[in-house]
Write a structure and sequence with these properties.
The chain has 12 helices and 11 strands. By secondary structure, it is α/β, with parallel strands linked by helices. InterPro entries: Glyco_trans_2-like, Nucleotide-diphossugar_trans.
């Protein structure tokens, strides 16, 4: 295998060297692609030092040297990456020594276009630990609940399998054939300032043949600190609902041009409408998921009635 590791860099000077070193430990990693997104700390200087330190480290910035967000930054990394395989790593996270153990075997099957695994957590600050555990309880492993491949991955991500599949797997534990990304014109939605990863992974699971790798133990580690965006938004708050709405709107618009199975199309539509209605009504207590609608269709009728009466 020859792998390009893409690391978007924004205000990560404190953690970046550890992330890069964790990628360089593998002989399969032929290049680490740093894309610096106009940090306000000294991340750019750290990047420049890492380039000098190891010739495998490549540094890029947006043409206008501006800040464009994680989606555009990862897309620039995809454009610059020159290896057969692509992996991602956040600048405040790191790989473990078993990161590519499964990939080296699974990718011998040429039909496999992507492999995903599990990531662990490391608490770097006490405030970060408290915020993370308040939101996610004491989850030590972000993973799926059972091995899956092919069409079952998309259904699992959308909550349509008989067994609960689990959460979205993390980009840190995803490895892809670059040729498959090019063939399917897959990239991150630059209009989403958050949740670009969930949007990308859902579309990826439809267009590409994915297979689970190591899912019972971590292959990478998420660094949790004071500035993690994922812990700052309260579930079902107006800000949470708005960002979820934009994610599911992106997926809903994507379904118009792609022949998804009807159950997948329906789930995406109903989730999109749920967040749409929650924003229009302003009543988070009426927020409904797809499963809640199935159990009680009256919920959706109540939301429509409330919206109509308050136009």
């Amino acid at each position: 295998m020859n792998i390009s590791v893409i690391i978007p860099v924004y205000n990560a000077s404190e953690f970046l060297e550890k992330a890069v070193d964790s990628a360089l430990q593998f002989e399969e990693v032929r290049e680490v692609v740093l894309v610096e997104d106009k940090s306000t700390d000294n991340s750019l200087e750290v990047c420049q030092k890492l380039v000098v330190k190891d010739s495998r480290v490549k540094l890029y910035q947006h043409p206008d040297k501006g800040n464009h967000g994680a989606g555009a930054t990862r897309n620039l990394g995809l454009e610059k990456a020159g290896c057969e395989f692509i992996s991602f790593l956040d600048a405040d996270d790191h790989y473990l020594p078993n990161r590519f153990n499964a990939e080296k075997e699974i990718f011998k099957d040429e039909k496999i276009e992507g492999v995903f695994g599990a990531i662990g957590v490391e608490y770097l600050t006490e405030k970060g630990r408290k915020e993370f555990q308040d939101k996610f309880k004491d989850i030590s492993l972000t993973t799926v609940n059972f091995p899956a491949e092919g069409k079952e991955v998309l259904k699992g991500l959308l909550g349509l399998t008989l067994r609960v599949f689990g959460t979205f797997f993390h980009l840190n534990a995803l490895t892809l054939r670059k040729s498959s990304l090019v063939k399917n014109n897959l990239h991150f939605n630059e209009n989403l300032r958050v949740h670009q990863d969930s949007d990308f992974i859902t579309k990826l699971a439809f267009h590409c043949y994915l297979k689970s790798g190591i899912i019972d133990k971590a292959v990478a580690v998420r660094g949790v600190h004071d500035n993690n965006r994922i812990t700052k938004i309260i579930r079902y708050s107006p800000q949470y609902n708005e960002r979820q709405f934009l994610l599911w709107k992106s997926l809903y618009e994507w379904t118009a041009a792609n022949p998804l199975p009807s159950e997948c199309r329906k789930k995406i539509y109903l989730t999109y409408k749920s967040f749409d209605l929650s924003l229009k009504t302003g009543l988070n207590k009426y927020f409904c998921t797809f499963l809640e609608v199935i159990k009680n269709p009256q919920i959706l009728k109540t939301q429509y009635r409330f919206t109509y009466l308050n136009r």
